[in-house]
Specification:
Elements lengths: L2 H38 L4 E4 L2 E4 L10 H7 L1 H6 L13
Antiparallel strand pairs: 1-2
């Protein structure tokens, strides 16, 4: 692939990223409008035609690695596993 072709691919990629971000922002705004209406109706589930929308409260317990590392650094180090991956970025 020539530099010109690569430039066009990268430019197209960046433009698509911008469009994706704009659509994600728009979807989030619509989602917040739906949630606001559900809150106004004081409901966690709403069925409209073929759609069922849920905005349920979920409770979960998570392990606090930061606190564990502070209080038991030796055990934290003993059970920490290094992982290797790749990160793609265009700036």
């Amino acid at each position: 692939m020539s530099n010109n072709e690569m430039y066009e691919k990268i430019k197209n990629f960046k433009e698509l990223q911008i469009m994706i971000k704009q659509l994600e922002d728009e979807a989030e705004a619509v989602k917040q409008t739906i949630i606001a209406e559900m809150d106004a109706q004081n409901t966690e589930q709403l069925t409209i035609d073929i759609f069922t929308v849920r905005n349920a409260t979920i409770k979960s317990n998570r392990f606090d690695t930061t606190a564990f590392k502070l209080t038991h650094s030796d055990l934290y180090t003993q059970y920490t596993k290094e992982t290797i991956g790749k990160r793609f970025s265009v700036s």
